[in-house]
């Protein structure tokens, strides 16, 4: 499999430290608000990647943190703790909102067919681990105490800016733009490992540490949670592209300094879901959630389909029109699958050829839009009905569009739709059976009868439709 690697800036052959086993880490949500559908784009694409690795035969250990402390509004060391902001907004405690939004996140994931990671760790449950690693970094000379806080000393590294996707200049400007310049830092790129003294007097969650009562920085959380649960050699680290700097850059700095060897050779970054106003973001206040899509009548899985129709390394423009198109295509696809009769022998050669097309799409830097077209190739093929269904079910273990379930729903729905009278629905069922028995004379007779009752029957690609004349 070839996968774009942000660290090498090229599509590399996917490799693992231990043959057949993937140690995978994903930056989890900051649970101060609902996840927006942009965040969920990242989690959908990461879910597909994980499932494809399993499909390809790997044993995957996927670890995710839940950020419930330490993530400041700037992504760096300035601003307020996002959790505190959320708690104030809702007049609740930090732990109350953490629980509420963690549950809401996994509920969204369930609706989107995103599998739960194997290991999920809330940052607040790992304080001892953070203290252990920070102490070791101080001992090794990679961290220092200044003004009460503990900082990582980036001047000790041979190379700090590892994701040269961005120019060093550009990144440095980003750092300089921090609103509150921190005079304690020896170098402008140094970052906080542990906040002790602070401008954050009202920080609700604080823990005892060798450096005084305080709380961890965001970046150290992911390094520690991964090193503890994935081991010393991580194979694949995932996140949205905004995490590449400073978050992932800092994770690499800490982890490699602590371990004394390279940590993670492959980095998978999902590009943003954008709206006309730019990147969808929680801090802007106006953002779209899965519940909102549902309220507007969209199936969450139609949103998943929308995401899979485009490549993860391209920004994706959200508009209601684009979602409408995806939702219509999704329903059509389900209707076509619903038409398949589960019968006939399976031609192995044809079956494997179609499966290879799917694999080669996914092997080419996770080309999900091409993988979606593999469903249509199956439908168009002359494979038997049972072959088609079996193959689509295989694809579904990776793309999880819920297309089989959707097709089943259509099949069990009342013929002609819910607003059609019982007797018309009954006649439609009889006509369907007549057509199945190739008794077309009877089918026509029933159609005429339905027509006399004031309803028109139409054959469409999605099956038989009926409407009031
Ligand atoms: P957060 O909850 O802010 O920690 O973000 C959770 C994940 O969503 C991270 O991997 C972010 O990089 C990612 N993310 C944030 N905004 C977007 C967006 N507009 N489109 C795609 N992914 C995003
Ligand atoms: Zn992280």
Describe this structure in words.
A hairpin with a 2-residue loop joins strand 6 (143-146) and strand 7. The chain starts with a strand and ends with a strand. It contains 16 helices and 16 strands. The chain has helices at residues 37-55, 82-90, 94-111, 127-139, 168-176, 218-230, 244-259, 290-295, 300-308, 320-338, 348-363, 368-380, 385-399, 403-412, 422-436, 440-452, and strands at residues 2-5, 10-13, 21-26, 59-66, 119-122, 143-146, 149-152, 191-195, 215-216, 236-240, 267-270, 273-275, 278-279, 316-317, 455-460, 463-468. The strands form five sheets. The chain has a five-stranded parallel sheet with strand order 5-4-3-10-11, sandwiched between helices. The protein has three domains: 15-270, Rossmann fold; 275-412, Up-down Bundle (Four Helix Bundle (Hemerythrin (Met), subunit A)), CATH 1.20.120; 422-468. By secondary structure, it is of the alpha/beta class. It binds adenosine monophosphate and zinc ion.
Summarize it:
With 469 residues, the protein is α/β, with parallel strands linked by helices.
Beta-strand residue percentage:
5-15%
Determine the structural class based on helices, strands and strand pairing.
Answer: alpha/beta
Apparent shape? elongated
What is the CATH T-level topology of the largest domain?
Answer: Rossmann fold
* Total individual domains: 3
Query: What's the pLDDT, averaged over the residues?
Result: 91
How far is the N terminus from the C terminus? Answer: 54 Å
- Small molecules bound: adenosine monophosphate, zinc ion
The CATH architecture category of the largest domain equals 3-Layer(aba) Sandwich
User: Helix coverage percent of residues?
Assistant: 40-55%
Number of helices: 16
Question: Spans with pLDDT under 50 lasting ≥5 residues?
Answer: 170-179
CATH class designation of the largest domain = Alpha Beta
Radius of gyration: 27 Å
Compute the number of strand runs.
16
Report the CATH superfamily of the largest domain.
HUPs
| Main β-sheet description | 5 strands, parallel
In which order are the strands of the major sheet placed? 5-4-3-10-11
């Amino acid at each position: 499999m070839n996968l774009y690697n942000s660290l090498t800036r090229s599509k590399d052959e996917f490799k693992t430290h231990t043959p057949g086993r993937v140690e995978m880490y994903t930056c989890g949500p900051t649970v101060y608000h609902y996840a927006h559908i942009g965040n969920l784009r990242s989690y959908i694409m990461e879910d597909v990647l994980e499932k494809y690795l399993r499909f390809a035969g790997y044993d995957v250990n996927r670890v995710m943190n839940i950020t419930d402390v330490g993530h400041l509004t700037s992504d760096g060391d300035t601003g307020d703790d996002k959790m505190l902001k959320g708690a104030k907004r809702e007049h609740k405690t930090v732990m109350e909102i953490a629980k509420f939004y963690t549950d809401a996140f996994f509920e969204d994931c369930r609706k989107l067919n995103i599998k739960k990671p194997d290991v999920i760790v809330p940052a607040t449950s790992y304080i001892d681990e953070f203290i252990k690693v920070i102490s070791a970094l101080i001992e090794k000379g990679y961290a220092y105490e200044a003004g009460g806080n503990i900082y990582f000393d980036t001047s000790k590294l041979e190379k700090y800016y590892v994701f040269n996707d961005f120019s060093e200049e550009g990144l440095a400007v980003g750092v300089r733009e921090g609103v509150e310049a921190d005079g304690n830092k020896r170098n402008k790129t140094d970052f906080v490992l542990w906040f002790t003294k602070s401008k954050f007097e009202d920080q609700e969650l604080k823990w005892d540490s060798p450096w005084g009562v305080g709380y961890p920085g965001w970046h150290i959380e992911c390094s520690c949670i991964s090193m503890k649960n994935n081991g010393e050699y991580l194979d694949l680290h995932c996140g949205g592209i905004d995490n590449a700097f400073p978050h992932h850059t800092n994770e690499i700095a800490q982890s490699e300094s602590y371990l004394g060897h390279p940590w993670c050779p492959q980095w998978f970054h999902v590009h943003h879901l954008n709206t006309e106003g730019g990147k969808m973001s929680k801090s802007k206040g106006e953002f779209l959630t899965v519940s909102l899509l549902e309220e507007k009548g969209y199936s969450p899985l139609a949103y998943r389909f929308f995401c899979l129709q485009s490549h993860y390394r391209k920004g994706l423009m959200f508009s209601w029109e684009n979602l409408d198109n995806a939702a219509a295509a999704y329903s059509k696809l389900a209707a076509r699958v619903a038409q398949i009769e589960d019968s006939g022998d399976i031609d192995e050669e044809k079956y494997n050829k179609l499966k290879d097309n799917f694999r080669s799409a996914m092997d080419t830097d996770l080309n999900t839009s091409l993988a979606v077209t593999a469903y249509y190739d199956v439908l168009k093929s002359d494979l038997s009905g049972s072959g088609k269904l079996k193959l689509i079910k295989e694809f579904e273990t990776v793309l999880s569009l819920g297309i089989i379930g959707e097709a089943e729903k259509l099949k069990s729905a009342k013929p002609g739709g819910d607003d059609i009278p019982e007797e018309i629905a009954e006649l439609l069922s009889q006509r369907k059976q007549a057509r199945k028995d190739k008794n077309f004379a009877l089918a026509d007779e029933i159609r005429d009868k339905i027509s006399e009752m004031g309803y028109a029957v139409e054959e469409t690609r999605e099956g038989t439709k009926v409407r009031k004349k």
